[in-house]
What does this fold into?
Amino acid sequence: MEFPKVFPSSDTWYAHRVSYGETDAMGVLYYAEYLHIFERARSQFLRERGMGYNLVEERGVILPVREAWCRYRAPSRYDDLLMVRCGVSGWGRASMRIVYEFRSEDRTQLRAQGYTEHAIVNAQGKPTAVPDWFKALCENQPQARQ
It folds into this structure.
C-alpha cells in the first residue's frame, strides 16, 4: 500500500505527549505504541465531529481493525509532544480506511505515517453497508472544542 500523496481534508489534530512508559530501552517511542495512538486519534476525530465512539457503537456500528500499517520516519522520544492528524481516505461498501500522520510539535517534521482499515459490522459482527449517517458524520467538519 502506498500512503496517499495528498492527505484527506482534516482539521483534527490530536496532541500526544510521549510518556516514559511508552519508550523502549533506547528511549524512543516503542513501535507498537503507535497503534494505541492511532486509536486515540480516531476517537478524537469522531468526537470532534459530534459523536463519541461509544455512541457510534450504541447506534449499531462497530469498527474492528482488519489491517494496520505504520512507517516510522524519525524517532520520537520521552516528553516529545507529537501532533497526530487523521482523516478518512477511502470508503468501501462495508469498510473504511483512516490515515494518520505523526508530526513534531511545530508540525514541520514528519515522524511517522500509517493507516488502519476497518470493517463495518453490526452488533452481531456481520458486515453491513456504511450507514449514510455514519459517512456524513465522518465527512463533517470538526465542531469547536469546548
Observations:
- The longest strand covers residues 81-91.
